[in-house]
Structure formats: C-alpha cells, structure tokens
Design the sequence.
C-alpha cells in the first residue's frame, strides 16, 4: 500500500502510527504543505491521511494552499473514492470538502478527554474492538458544525457534537488525536497558536499538568491508536485489492 500524508506543521506527523507503518512495511510519503510543497496529485497513492495543524480551514488568505488541499481531498474522496483518514484539521477539511461548515468551537477542548461512540459509531468497522468511551488528546478551537450529506457521526462529547465522521465506509475523520507520543504535548506546546489556546483553557500552569496527564494516559492512547490503525488498514486493504 502506498500512503500519502498531508502535513501542516512539522511536529504534527503520524506520531505513533509511524511505528505501525514501519512494522507493516507500508510505504508513506509526507507532503509538508505549510513549507511550500505543492499539493500533489494523489492518484499514484492508495490512501490519503491528513494530519492536524495550527491554521483554521477558513484562513485561505494566510494559507492559499488550503484551497488546493480541499480540492485535492474532494478528488480523492468523491472521485477516486480513496480510503481517507483525517485528524483534527484533517477531520475538518474532510467535512469542508464534503460540503459541511466548519467554524469556531463554542467551547474549545484542550486536554486528555473522553469521546463517546454514537449509535452509528457502535456499529462502525473503524471502531471495532475499541473501548467506549475513548480516552484521547484534544487540542482544538474549531469544530465541524454539521454532518455532511452521506456521512455519519461516529463519536461525540459534551462540548463537541461531531467528534468523528464516516463517509460511505471508506473516508474517516477524527476531531481528536490518537497518534500521540511522549513528546507530543511538549512539541505542540511550543507552537504559539497552540500555547495560546492551551493557556486560555487550562491556565498558565496548564502545560505541565497536560504533560503529566498525557504521560499517564499514553499506554491506553497507544493501544487505542493500534486498534484504530488496524481497523483502518483492513478497510483500506479491502478497497485497494
């Protein structure tokens, strides 16, 4: 399987998934769009992952490549029907490409939190074998405002109704993060936009407390990531045979 990965800042990469991909011998190519790499034609790949980033989907004036990225996601998902996995910003970009709206969250989420499967989520192939609720890392101030036509909401939380999307059983988005490593909070905390959001939600001492909570939760989060990875790859393999 050949995997394309769109990245929007160098510290938001596939994280723990890199270990799983290496063990499985999966070839993957990262495109660092924020550093000027052009949005590629993904027709040479079998699946597309889109990671998070500090920009918002509506900041096209500051980041003109966002428009090209949304167009590429539309082609990949709607025309090529390519297996897709989006995380945080990648989740929001999927929703936007499918015709939904994304806007500022009523209540930003930052910290180690839980999301709960919906009725649709409990029967989803992506969520097979997962605990419910799922413990995950949240760090977002924007949210998907409505479920796109043809999609299902798989998970929710008290402050964010649409935590996970499934479009037609092959394209998925997670508002939350499961790809985290032991370095994630420290690395993301050094990003000015993330540091500001964290301080607004958790206060000036929030970073150290967040790091400690992440360290405690890391084994459970890594196990969750492994199951999600296995489930997605099974879905993708069945589509690319």
Sequence:
């Amino acid at each position: 399987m050949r995997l394309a990965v769109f990245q929007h800042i160098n510290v938001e990469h596939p994280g723990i998934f890199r270990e799983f991909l290496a063990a499985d011998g999966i070839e993957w190519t990262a495109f660092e769009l924020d550093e000027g790499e052009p949005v590629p034609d993904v027709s040479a790949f079998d699946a597309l992952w889109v990671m998070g980033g500090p920009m918002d989907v509506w900041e096209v004036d500051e980041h003109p490549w966002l428009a090209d990225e949304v167009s590429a996601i539309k082609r990949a998902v709607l025309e090529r029907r390519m297996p897709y996995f989006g995380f945080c910003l990648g989740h929001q970009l999927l929703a936007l490409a499918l015709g939904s709206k994304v806007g500022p969250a009523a209540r930003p989420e930052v910290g180690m939190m839980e999301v709960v499967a919906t009725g649709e989520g409990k029967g989803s192939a992506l969520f097979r074998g997962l605990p419910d609720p799922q413990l995950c890392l949240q760090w977002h101030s924007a949210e998907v405002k409505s479920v796109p036509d043809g999609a299902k909401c798989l998970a929710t939380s008290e402050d964010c109704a649409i935590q996970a999307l499934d479009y037609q059983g092959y394209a998925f988005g997670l508002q939350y993060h499961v790809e985290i490593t032991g370095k994630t909070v420290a690395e993301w905390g050094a990003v000015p936009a993330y540091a500001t959001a964290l301080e607004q939600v958790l206060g000036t001492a929030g970073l150290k407390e967040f790091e400690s909570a992440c360290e405690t939760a890391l084994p459970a989060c890594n196990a969750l990531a492994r199951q999600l990875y296995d489930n997605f790859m099974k879905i993708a393999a069945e589509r690319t045979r």
Q: What stands out?
A: Residues 64 and 180 are 28 Å apart (CA to CA). Helices lie at 17-24, 65-79, 89-97, 119-122, 184-189, 192-202, 206-240. The first strand starts at residue 2 and ends at 7. Strands lie at 2-7, 27-32, 47-50, 84-87, 102-117, 134-144, 151-156, 164-167, 171-174.
